[in-house]
Amino acid sequence: MSAPDYAIEAEGLEKVYAASGKMPEKRALKSIDLKVPRGQIFGLLGPNGAGKSTFINILAGLVTKTGGKAKIWGMDIDQHPRASRAAIGVVNQEITMDPFFTPEEALELQAGFYGVPKGERRTDEILEAVGLLDKRDAYVRQLSGGMKRRLMVAKALVHNPPVLILDEPTAGVDVELRRSLWQYVRRLHDAGTTIILTTHYLEEAEELCDQIAIVNHGEIIACEPTSQLLKRLDQRILRVTPREPLNAIPESLSHLDAKLLNSGDLEIAYRNSETGIGRLLEQVREAGVGVADLSTDQPNLEDVFVAMTSEPA
Ligand SMILES: Nc1ncnc2c1ncn2[C@@H]1O[C@H](COP(=O)(O)OP(=O)(O)OP(=O)(O)O)[C@@H](O)[C@H]1O
């Protein structure tokens, strides 16, 4: 089969967790439409409980969807459950592995589980790639948290899937190890693997992802190339304290995105690349506003994210 345009396609994907005990029914995914182009590093961002893991677990076959369709590598997960799952490697949030196996044994077992013939196994190559070759004979319980996480990634790679899904790959991993994991993710990407990662770290998404989808309350509220999302950072706020209190925004400033605050300050949103601060201040002065004080504010990706996800459901 020739490579599909999209590594993952979801259409109207729904998940309702049934009520249980005192927990009411929960609509965790609300008709999600999402396409992940082949060859990307794609970020799935969202606050706790947004539905990221539910989405991933449906793809992985760990959660049963209650509506909609999903395709992995062009294969419908209902029509081709086995073949579609063979096209992904999933690394979950929880570290689950038998403490009494060595990394080498863990990978061999996993390869056996996926039916990879002995002659086609790449155990050494994968251990080397995740920096665990020198730990091949150590017991898993002797590995550090970061090493265990890398072993989880290694296990997800034994069947050579074209799509790798990493759910919070660097949660609880220190900065240095995070960097080395990123490096490895980039190498896999360079070798042609499509990578989907969920993360709370905006820095991680910014650094790695070609495209970012933001999930909130079970819905996709933005899906844009990272560069476009970052362009929103171009927005600045100029706050002016006028010498004399203003009753209203002067007519000549009405074309600007300006607000009069209760404090009497004038707040003007502008794009740094379009209107320089000098030109803006000139316009304020030309409108007859004397400037007693001023400040500027620049949002970061965190602000953009918070602003997008803080609207009520
Ligand atoms: N097995 C389950 N039964 C009932 N509700 C569930 C179940 N699993 C998840 N949920 C609920 O579904 C919603 C989405 O959860 P999910 O784990 O997909 O979010 P998430 O975005 O991955 O969050 P996090 O970043 O904290 O991992 C949450 O409200 C959660 O409480």
TrEMBL record:
* Leader sequence segment: none
| Entry annotated with the keyword S-adenosyl-L-methionine | no
What is a GO molecular function of this protein?
ATP binding
What is any Pfam family matched here?
ABC_tran
Question: What keyword terms does UniProt attach to this protein?
Answer: ATP-binding, Nucleotide-binding, Transport
Give start and end of each ABC transporter domain.
8-242
Tell me the InterPro entries matching this sequence. AAA+_ATPase (IPR003593), ABC_transporter-like_ATP-bd (IPR003439), ABC_transporter-like_CS (IPR017871), ABC_transporter_ATP-binding (IPR050763), P-loop_NTPase (IPR027417)
Q: Which organism is it from?
A: Henriciella mobilis
Q: What is this protein called?
A: ABC transporter ATP-binding protein
